[in-house]
Here is the input.
Amino acid sequence: MSRSDEIGADEDILAALIEVSKTPEGRQGLSDVLADTLSLLPVSPSRLLLLRLRLLRNLLAGNEFNQLAFIESSGPSVVASSVLSFPSLAPDAARAALQALGNTALAGEFHRDAVWEALFPEVLGEFAGVRDTGVLDPLCMVLDTCCGGEGGRRRLDELCHEDLGLPILVQVVNTASQVEHKEEWLEWLLFKVCVEEEKFESLFNALCSTNDVECTDSGEYNAKHAFLLGTLSRCLNTHPKEVTVTDSFAHHVFDVHKHAAETVNFTHRGTSPLPTGRPAIDILGYTLQLLRDICAWESSSSETQGPVDSLLQTGLVKRLLKYLGELEPPSTIRKSMAGGQGDNHPALENAKVCPYIGYRRDLVAVIANCLHGRKKVQDEIRKLGGIMLLLQQCVIDEDNPYLREWGLLAIKNLLEENEENQKEVSELEMQEPVITPEIANIGLKVEIDKETGRPKLVNTSDT
Here is the structure.
C-alpha cells in the first residue's frame, strides 16, 4: 500500500471516529483513543492533523475523564507545537486546535491554568495573527474562559500587560475589525477587559501606534478604535443586566466623546447611520450610545452612586445641551420656517448639521435618561434655559428616526414631579399659544394634562 493509500485509509477511520465522538456516549467509549491521537499529532501530515484535531475537539467536549487525561499528557503543549510546526498556520487547523483547548479550559481552574501556561503569550500571539473569523471566535473563547474563575484575575492582568498580553488584544481587535467579527465571545472578552477590569484606556491607546498609517486618517482615530467602541456599545445595549459599568470607564467614554466632537466636521450632513465608515464620526456616535445606556443604569442601592451620577458631576448635561443647541432645528421645523426659505433661512447659516443619521436622537436620548428620577438634572436644564430646546425635539425628523419618541420621554422626565418646570411650561403656554413660532407653523402645541401633570402634544387644527 502506498503512502497516499495509507493516508486515505487513516482519513476514513478518523472520519468514522469523529462521527461517533459527536455524542456523550461516543466520547465516553472512545476515551482510550485520546492518548493515541495525541501521540500521533506531532508526526501527522496536514490532512491527518486537521482530522485528529477535530477528533480531539469532540473528545474533550464535556467529558471530565478525557479533559483530565488531556492535561496529564501535556495535551495543550502538544497541540500547540503540532499546529505551529507547519510553515504557515492553516485557519482550519488553528480553529480546531483552539476549540479543543477551549473545551478543555471550560472544565475548571486546573485545566484553565494548564492551557494558559502552554499558550501565553507566544502561541496565543500566533493564533491572533490568523485573520480568519473562524479562528477568532474560539480564540476569544479561550481568552475569555482563561480569564475567569479563581485564577482569572492573574491571567487577565497578564493579558493586559503592556509588553506581553496587550499586543494579543490589539491583534484580536485588528483582525475582528477587518473581518467584521461580531460574535459574543469577542463582546464578552472586550467588555471584561475594558469595562469590568478598567483597561479601556490602555487598549484604546494601544490601537494607535506611531507606525499605524490609519491613525492619520481622522485625527487620532482609526477603524480599530471605532470597532472597539461599537462592540462595547452593542454588548452593553444587549446585556444591560449582565454587565457592570465602572465610573472609570464611563469617564473615559465621555472624554473620548468630547474629543471626537472637536474632531468631527459638523458642516457636512451625514447620509447614513452608524457605522458610517468614517472613524471619528463613528466614535462620536458609539460614545453617545454608550453614554445613553450607561445613563439608563440605576443603582440597586440608594447608598451606592452609579456611574451616571458621577458623570453628571462633570458637566455632562450642560455639554450635551450645548451640542444640541448648536444644531439646526429638526427637518419638520426647518421646512416650516418663515417665508418658506427652509434650509436657506438666515437663522440656519451658522448652524451645525448631524454628521450621521441619528445623531440628534442620540443626544436627546442621553439627556432623557439623565433626567429620569433626578430633580437636580431637571432643575439644571431649567436654569440653563433648556426646556424650550427640548420641546423642539418632540417632532418628526427625517434624519433622526424615533426623535419624537425620545423627545417626548425627555419632556416627561423633565416635568415629572417638578412643579417649577411644570409652571414654566404653563407660563410659556399662557404667553403664546405654542412654544415657538416654528412649532406653531406645523400645527402643534404643548399642553399639561391636568390629571397626570404630564406634557402632551396637541394638534391645534383639532381644537
The beta strands are 444-448, 455-459.
